[in-house]
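User: I would dearly like some help making sense of a protein record. This is the protein in question:
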Amino acid sequence: MMSHGPSPVCSICIANYNGMKVIDNCIRSVMAQDFEQVVEIIVHDDASNDGSADYIREHYPDVVLIVSETNVGFCISNNRMAKVARGRYILLLNNDAELFPDALSALYTEAEQAATPAILGLPQYDAATGSLIDIGSRFDPFLNPIPNLDPSQQEIGMIIGACLWLPSSLWEELGGFPDWFGSLAEDMYLCCLARLYGYTVMALPDSGFRHWVGQSLGGGKIVNNRLATKLTRRVISERNKTFVMALTYPAPVFHIIFPLHLGLLLMEGVILAMLKGKTSLYKDIYWACIKAQWIERKRLRQLRRKIQAHPHIGIKKFLSVFDLIPYKLSMLWRHGLPEVR
């Protein structure tokens, strides 16, 4: 039920950029929910040039529409929506995601029964094929997400930001997304920070959502049994993932893994550039990642001190959602060298 007066129990926040092909199915999937509680839909249009903002304004007058004059990225888009959200809970939803009819009911029921605030997610299905992508993700030591396909494994490391539910109070405590991330790995940051502070990150085994993976930044997908990704995505994901590691890994794990991670990144870049015959891959992805850590060293140092000063769980508990084997090695064995376009 859409909000027209009473405070909504949940604010569905949809970040939209040039989403004319997908926004209808996304909004309609929310409006078609088998859910009796009051909800509001907020859409942040990130300076689209495809007319989607005007389309939403005309066809969905009940939607709270925020139109940005400039393209600000996924993080700022969601931070802006969360700031005006009136719901007790927030659901971050990609414009290329479509909820199953019982999605809100499943999330709300679990959230109300939880003993403490938690970040919740749902099984993610490929909208093109209908196949299960993941039920949340675990991590390897270097923060590469490992898709969880076991419905009994509910406590995981990360919920994808394409469909991420949490209490508004928890969003406020965690501080939302870092504006300076732009896009990618902001969901990883939020989940790692929540777990560090002792909150649960959980993927429900039931219901779900369909996701047109890679519609925005040409996400990493398996195409003809080969991993394919766009250069832009790889650059940002490696950079931001390393930011998350620098900020959230507790000592002494940070002091061991972080320098090892940087060294292995440089080694990976050299090997990939040699095998592909493209020295630009080393410069644009791997060296750019190391350079970004140096450029942002002051910001990272200050924020890390603030984060680590907050009371947090022990190392053993934090690492309980990590696997020892590096995920990139298993992907290399199964699918060969990634195709970077």
Q: What stands out?
A: The longest helix spans residues 253-276. The chain has twelve helices and 16 strands.
